[in-house]
Amino acid sequence: MKQRLGIFKQKFMANLKRTREDILTSAIATVHRQGLQSTGLKDLFAVTQASSGSFYNYFPSKDEFAHALIDFQWQQIREDTFEATKELAEDPIARLFLVIDKIEAKHLSEINCAGCLLGNLIVDLVEHNESFRQHLQQIFDDWQALFAELLQAGKAQLSDRVDPDLLAEQILTMLEGVLLMVRLYSDSDRLRRGFNNIRQVVKAALVSQQP
């Protein structure tokens, strides 16, 4: 009897430990593909395999879930690109190119590129609730700041006419534009051309252009 109770307890605890991160990870692909407004709560319960009680324990509302998903996705982008390249290159400009490479590789690995999830959520959410506009503005400001930080650190390699902050803004704007058009056309060649254009903009900003 005690053994059966022990097994039941283990199963119960395993289900209870459907953690906040598990739920967010399980939901990303669905939200990325069809948008958050088009994804109902029943869909979220099904795809995350979380009970309504477990879901609401972490996310009191769908809007709270959306804010958490934004932060979670941004954390993944930071870790997979900016953090992951710290040990790969000391030179900040070389590291910037590695970050661009990693973002491109991530989207090329998707069978049907659905664009940038954070960019998609701008269209999906900002008119729904002003808090999403403010939240996403902060995320994209932080993203731009990370590009600017690398460019500022490598300023000696940039032409005198180049403003690192404006170049960072241009890189991020181009990146989001490329991913939006790739979502429309679902064309990996267009994605490669777009990212090559981003690289060319950076190279054109260098004092001595890299090959």
What is the C-alpha radius of gyration, as a whole number of Å?
21 Å
Give the low-pLDDT segments.
none
Number of helices: 10
Helix content: over 70%
What distance separates the N and C termini?
72 Å
Q: Rough shape?
A: elongated
Can you put this structure into words, describing what you see?
The protein has 211 residues and is an all-alpha fold. 74% of the residues lie in helices and 0% in strands. It contains 10 helices and no strands. The model has no long low-confidence stretch (mean pLDDT 90).
Briefly say what this structure is.
With 211 residues, this protein is mainly alpha-helical.
Could you list some keywords that capture this structure?
10 helices, mainly alpha, elongated, 211 residues
Task: Please describe the topology of this protein.
Blueprint: H1 2-16, H2 20-34, H3 41-48, H4 52-58, H5 62-83, H6 92-108, H7 117-125, H8 130-153, H9 164-185, H10 188-204
